Amino acid sequence: MPTMVRGYFRSIVFLIGIAAAMFAAQHASGQASMADSTTGFAPLDQWKNAVVAGDAAALKASYSTDPEAQVMANGITVNADADVSFWLGLKAQSIKLEIVRMKERPAGASIVFKAEVLLPNGKTLRVTDGQGWRKQGDQWRLAGVERADNPHLEQPSDMKRNIYPADADAHAEIKEAEEKAATQHKRVLLVFGANWCFDCHVLDLAFHRPDFASAMAAYEVVHVDLGEDEKKNADVVKQFNVTLDKGIPTLAVAEADGKLVVSQKNGEFEDARSLTPETLLEFLNKWRPEARQ
């Protein structure tokens, strides 16, 4: 998740604390049935209805202008007008929303959903959208958006997998991984992230793809938990020269003796939801042990 949008999402998460609610939307059927399902969060329902109705004024009014909503679309920073134009340009006949995560408090809400958009030609477009909502006066408005159109990688339907256990000892796990790597001619792949990070879940699913098996077999994998505030395991972050200000997840590769081979500096995988399998495989194959022979 990129730093700019992540700031909005993380501030909302702090307001929310640990309370969470999961809601599922029912399939909408045609433009006349916009109100036949609800997500459990009225502003999102209104946003969806505005999209299906083609109501430009109502849709644009959903985005914050002060401060200006921060929008990331397919890894590229755009403005709210571009996001509005995208959704209106689809001329959606209906939208089915599957809520992946929804956390709500009086002052803010953080939502990740997968959308199936029925297009005029009868085809379906799949979109993954992360939205950060804030209460401004008596109105809810979008403060941050991260969108992936027709994603190439599998997008999780929930974030229940405990990829980054809170009680894990990163130092002990790294030491164990180094010992295994030394005996099996492998390198250590360190994945820095957190359970709250949707893109971390996307990346983890990708690593378990059958066509990734050969590349992943070259590594011992360690997940390093950064916690809610991304300050956890700060010494490990420093040890492997990892940069967090470009977003997470972020990766580092080390030799079996702990010597750093490479660490990502530019948030290359922070928008994992928009990446292609080829991009991930290129990284894994580039830094596998055979590459140094």
Describe this structure in words.
With 293 residues, this protein is α+β, with helices and mostly antiparallel strands. The chain folds into two domains: 3-149, Roll (Nuclear Transport Factor 2, Chain: A), CATH 3.10.450; 170-292, 3-Layer(aba) Sandwich (Glutaredoxin), CATH 3.40.30.10. The chain has nine helices and ten strands. The strands form two sheets. Strands 2-1-6-5-4-3 form a six-stranded mixed sheet, with helices on both faces.
Short key terms for the protein model shown above:
293 residues; alpha+beta; Nuclear Transport Factor 2, Chain: A; Glutaredoxin; six-stranded mixed β-sheet; four-stranded mixed β-sheet; 10 strands
Secondary-structure blueprint of this entry?
Layout: H1 3-16, H2 42-53, H3 56-60, E1 70-73, E2 76-78, H4 80-89, E3 94-105, E4 108-118, E5 124-136, E6 139-149, H5 170-184, E7 187-193, H6 198-207, H7 213-216, E8 219-225, H8 234-239, E9 250-254, E10 260-263, H9 277-287
Parallel strand pairs: 1-6, 7-8
Antiparallel strand pairs: 1-2, 3-4, 4-5, 5-6, 7-9, 9-10
